[in-house]
């Protein structure tokens, strides 16, 4: 930036403006939606609305998240995707009600993720995609309630085994990382299989109709498996809110 020139001046968010941006979700929760408003600095006035359940500051130009964000003790849903954030505050670990955290399409490095993330014991969905992570933070493997993890479009060369051992993990996106072998991420994802109920019996213990039903079910599973192996693999992280872009070059267009 040339000397004497200032950065872009963002929109000023007043308490009155923020109050008008509070919506009630379908399940009766209060959501403060300040997305796509050209904000460059975290608006301190919204700390007076810390009773909201959901906060959306995505698609702005915010560079820093202050420690005071921990005042949102009721927050269960935090969306910060598509900003210029390079690190998260340590105080985020105090937001133990969080179920959903999206910080994709920012400038985060692995060192910018605090160890205190391991305090988010209730978190179910995290999206770190489209950042600059060169390794998966070890704290991620301690979050036993995780169902969905986004790590796509980073600088990862490996995925730690602690991730595969997460007991409730169902969806993982590690696409477009520089793994040594192209199939490594696919092999890892294939290892995440969950069986809700498994009962073993011998054929001789089944009646004729039950045996035929089991055989038909097995034939159907085999057919589906063969079709899946023949078809190209699809992305399995569709439920996370993440940028439409498939390459880092389009991050600015996404904003």
Automatic annotation (TrEMBL):
It holds the Pfam family LRR_14. Keywords: Cytoplasm, Leucine-rich repeat, Repeat. SUPFAM superfamilies: L domain-like. Residues 32-131 form the Disease resistance R13L4/SHOC-2-like LRR domain. InterPro entries: Leu-rich_rpt, Leu-rich_rpt_typical-subtyp, LRR_dom_sf, LRR_domain-containing, LRR_R13L4/SHOC2-like. PROSITE patterns: LRR. It is found in: Cytoplasm. Its main location: cytoplasm. GO terms for cellular component: cytoplasm. May be involved in the regulation of spermatogenesis and sperm maturation. PANTHER family: LEUCINE-RICH REPEAT-CONTAINING PROTEIN 18-LIKE, PTHR48051. This is Leucine-rich repeat-containing protein 18. It comes from Physeter macrocephalus.
């Amino acid at each position: 930036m040339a000397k004497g020139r200032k950065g872009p001046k963002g929109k000023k968010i007043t308490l009155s403006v923020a109050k008008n941006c509070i919506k009630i979700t379908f399940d009766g929760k209060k959501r403060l939606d300040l997305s796509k408003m050209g904000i460059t600095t975290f608006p301190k006035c919204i700390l007076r609305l810390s009773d909201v359940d959901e906060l959306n500051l995505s698609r702005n130009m915010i560079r820093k998240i202050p420690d005071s964000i921990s005042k949102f003790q009721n927050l269960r849903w935090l969306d910060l995707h598509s900003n210029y954030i390079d690190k998260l505050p340590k105080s985020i670990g105090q937001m133990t009600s969080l179920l959903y955290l999206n910080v994709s399409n920012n400038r985060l490095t692995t060192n910018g993720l605090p160890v205190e993330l391991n305090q988010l014991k209730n978190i179910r969905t995290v999206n770190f995609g489209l950042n600059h992570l060169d390794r998966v933070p070890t704290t991620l493997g301690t979050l036993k309630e995780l169902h969905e993890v986004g790590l796509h479009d980073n600088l990862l060369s490996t995925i730690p085994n602690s991730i595969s051992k997460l007991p409730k993990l169902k969806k993982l996106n590690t696409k477009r990382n520089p793994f040594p072998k192209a199939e490594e991420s696919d092999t890892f994802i294939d290892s995440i299989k969950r069986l809700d109920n498994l009962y073993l019996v011998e054929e001789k213990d089944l009646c004729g109709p039950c045996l035929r039903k089991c055989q038909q079910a097995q034939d159907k599973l085999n057919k589906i498996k063969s079709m899946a192996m023949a078809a190209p693999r699809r992305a399995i992280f569709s439920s996370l809110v993440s940028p439409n872009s498939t390459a880092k070059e389009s991050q600015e267009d996404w904003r």
